[in-house]
Specification:
72% of the residues lie in helices and 9% in strands. The protein folds into two domains: 295 residues, no CATH class; 158 residues, Reverse transcriptase/Diguanylate cyclase domain (Alpha-Beta Plaits), CATH 3.30.70.270. It comes from Pseudothauera lacus.
Length: 456
Amino acid sequence: MSASRPAQAPVATIRRRFLRFSSLLTAIIVALLAALLALQVSAQRQVRELERTVLPSWRAALQLSADVRTVNVQAARLPLALSEGELYTVRSLVDAAKALLLDSFEASAPGLSPTDEQSLRRTLEEIGTAVDLATDLAVRRIGLAAQEGSAPGVGEQVLSLERRVLLRQERDLSRRIDDLHLTLASHIAIVAADNERQLDEQRTRITRLRELQTVLLVVAGVLMAAVMFAQFRLVDRHLLRRLENLRRSMAEGMVAPQLISRGPPRDELDAMLVELAALLERLADQAQELQKLATSDPLTTQANRRSLFERLAHEVERARRYRRPLSALMIDIDHFKPINDTWGHAAGDRVLRSVADVLAATVRQSDLLARYGGEEFVVLLPETDAVDASRLGELMRSRVAETVQQVGGGHTAQVTVSIGCATLRGDESADAFIERADEAVYRAKGRGRNCVECAP
């Protein structure tokens, strides 16, 4: 039987399988964490880049655009000044706006290309020159107006002509200043648009990184669920089910052949099943041996008195239930004591075994031959009436009488038996049934032995 082979070293162990599984799970978790960490670092780098370069440039461009509008508004008031006080007030506002414009330009210069920086700087210088010239023209215009007021009628034509020239120059210079402001505004708008584009690109990158993080988190969740399900399958298939099979095998006292691997044990549980199967097989053999010792006679190997009465109770119950005949033969070896006294107990044992063999060769498969005690045997005959039982008893008597018994030392002896036959009555107990067969033996001995006597 395959279960009795010695357990070999398992090819793989459950611990090794779970170690491989745990390593795989750890590798997946580390890889996902590393990917998430890399994405987080990249997103933070993008945010820092946005805060360090793009946002300041974008804010500086917006501030530069606002300062250009302020300078334009203040410069447009220069030709409208009517007195030197008003002119100097407007000029101070223009200078303040220009200072703010220059500060904004210097703040935005690091984010500009060299070409844009040179163009804006040149335009700012031209605006400064135009503002200075507009101020000079306004001073001259105000001075001419003062002369006209202090000396009316004197050189009116000359003053009027000069003032018209100044007014035309102021208009031309005002248009020039407007053109310069438009040029500056267009440059600033381009810079602002470029900064806006960079800002949008950075936002898009950060959004994609966040989306990728979300996807990785979803993938991580799915992988974790799959890994946990695989772990459950691993535990269920390689541990729980097999432990249940092991428990069931221990409870049933046998290991199903399909549970034992044909090759070397795969792991510790396989080795345990092999050892358990071998142990259960040894226990079964021992139990069978114990059962044989408990139910058979060690000398003749036939059933003993205990086994006889267990079978007798069953057969009596069956005969009563189904109203079937049941007979018994009580067999006693004649003059057995002289054999022991003459040739010793070993010779008596040989005679007992020989007689038992002759009787066993005569009974049917459904009958039971048992050693009743000493030199007495009982044959239990189910489905047998008194006539057939008597006939079988006579056959046994004649065969024993014909057999030459070897008593040892080259000596032989002729042995005969006395047989009592009884058939079960309807309301008779098992003890009374055997007792009637025993009484029939005594009557046979009283008739001279070596005969069959049936109980009435």
